[in-house]
Design goal:
Mean pLDDT of chain A: 84
Oligomer: homodimer
Number of domains of chain A: 2
Radius of gyration of chain A: 22 Å
CATH architecture of the largest domain in chain A: 3-Layer(aba) Sandwich
């Protein structure tokens, strides 16, 4: 059995840090450990928080952490940074705001950069959530700072998805149309002390009436002012309410099952793509097709189809010898 | 032969619009047309423009278009929008600024939303560039508004990559570190009438001295004030100079060859991933493995490796019957 997994399951926080480092490096020992760790997951509850820059996500995470720590539960925070080449040091600033929890051994904080990894939420984040879960942490908060697929991908790890906006978040209708409505379990208009907060909340509620996803759960729309703590109690109550809904309806297990199934599929794609790249770099039998592409005798897409349907590919080309 | 390709090669602008619409829909007729179109590419010159929001990319594109149109050359503009769920209507606003070219039949403008497509610059953008090229357009400007992989992916279609910044673009060192230095052929500090423009240009030049990519081409750092047109002539001269460098050194053909090779690889990955998804949805022989995953007898990643090395996959599982 993986030694690191053993130490992690015994509750050693250093083993948790170490495993995450191994995951980040893509060390084979991490994959070995995850085989063991995986069987000990499912006890923690995971809340995903997403929203545009400036919605106050880190402050919300900070306040929720404070509130939950007062009940004695432990908290794990994962800040996902898709690392745009142009995003600069925004994350670092956010993390500094969290520093009041750094000395609290009941709070585990880790940022993860996901640059260069395509698709939705990268596998490493899912493994991190699982490692935190198995280590005995009660509540896991996953915050995505970024755009697009990674943000929407938060649904692939979260039991409850919280979408945070602020009154200046721009055209509400546009914002909600683009895939967010399908993933949100709770809406939060933060910075509610600013103009336009009520109007935004009303607009969101209006949109929700037009398009209800689940007949059983209507996403509530909350107003908070995270920097003063206003509305955080109510937010936590709603998260608990959603958790109760998921548990009693059986939806929690179903949702987690779908997430695991999707993760399998993504892992197959990832490994296939890697093997493919390795082969294309090293296999001289591809030269003929690459020369045809270079000479414009075929376009790259048609060449790809031709290759995949050729005996070259069929002969278990992707399986390592 | 594809009728639409024939009309496009005859220079019918409506055929170009139609082909792009077919590409956006994923219509098989588009793939058919691209087989023909591909053989008629290589005449146009493609400039990619990337940079953080607020760098003035659209204004630069607008001014370059104006300048190039005065020489009689035709211009195609592709604005790539990775469509964050939170990006709102920013693109639309940018496009409105371009409206002075809408009545000019020598300018072809098209925005493309790439939401839900993973990886670098999506295949559709590459096909669009190729379609514009084959239709006889002289200069193609590809502007990416967004973050991360898509921005860096612009190198996969561009002959010259232009990175636009402004004096407020934040920590220069951070900005340039994250992959941008490897792709930029030209730097442009726009909004040069604002404080800090010269300092930023100096900082970039300093960075470049430390890490020169090509011994033959040193990326120049230009100052522009796009909204007044200041520096646009010089920018265009430098683009022409880079083009001459690429042509005489043979690097242009090499670069384009690498792009086509990479595009083949990406297409293989894309088609494989699609076939995989179709199979996982429909193949009952996968049920055993999915049940093991659900029961936590295996973690999704290990299950993926196991599956790929099993006889289930080896038996040409991904090839359609």
């Amino acid at each position: 059995m993986s030694e690191i997994a053993e130490r992690l399951l015994a509750g050693e926080q250093r083993a948790l840090s170490r495993l995450i480092t191994l995951l980040e490096r893509g060390d084979p020992a991490a994959a070995e450990a995850m085989k063991v760790v995986d069987g000990h997951t499912g006890r923690a509850y995971t809340v995903g928080i997403t929203g545009p820059p400036g919605a106050g996500k880190s402050t919300i995470v900070d306040q929720l952490t404070q509130l939950v720590r007062e009940t004695g539960s432990t908290v794990g925070i994962i800040a996902v940074d898709p690392t745009s080449p142009f995003s600069g040091g925004a994350i670092l600033g956010d993390r500094i705001r969290m520093q009041r929890h750094y000395l609290d051994s009941g709070v585990f904080i880790r940022s993860v950069a996901t640059r260069g990894q395509s698709g939705g939420l990268p596998r490493i984040v899912k493994s991190m959530v699982r490692a935190l879960d198995a280590s005995g942490i009660d509540l896991i908060l996953v915050e995505t700072v970024g755009v697009g697929q990674t943000e929407l991908g938060i649904i692939s790890v979260a039991d409850t998805v919280l979408v945070a906006l602020n009154p200046e978040s721009g055209d509400t209708i546009q914002t909600l149309k683009a895939g967010v409505m399908e993933i949100a379990d709770l809406y939060l208009v933060n910075k509610a002390d600013r103009d336009g907060a009520n109007q935004m909340a009303t607009a969101i509620t209006g949109m929700l009436h037009m398009a209800i996803n689940s007949p059983k759960w209507s996403p509530p729309v909350l107003l908070t002012t995270a920097h003063t703590g206003q509305g955080i109690d109510e937010l936590w109550n709603k998260i608990e309410e959603h958790r109760k809904f998921l548990t009693t309806s059986g939806e929690l297990n179903e949702r987690r099952g779908r997430q695991r199934r999707r993760e399998f599929l993504e892992a197959v794609e990832e490994v296939l793509a890697q093997r493919l790249r390795d082969r294309v770099e090293n296999d001289p039998s591809l030269n003929a097709i690459l020369e045809k592409i270079a000479a414009k005798e075929t376009d790259p897409y048609s060449a790809a189809l031709e290759f995949l349907d050729s005996s070259l590919f069929s002969a278990n080309w992707l399986n390592p010898e």
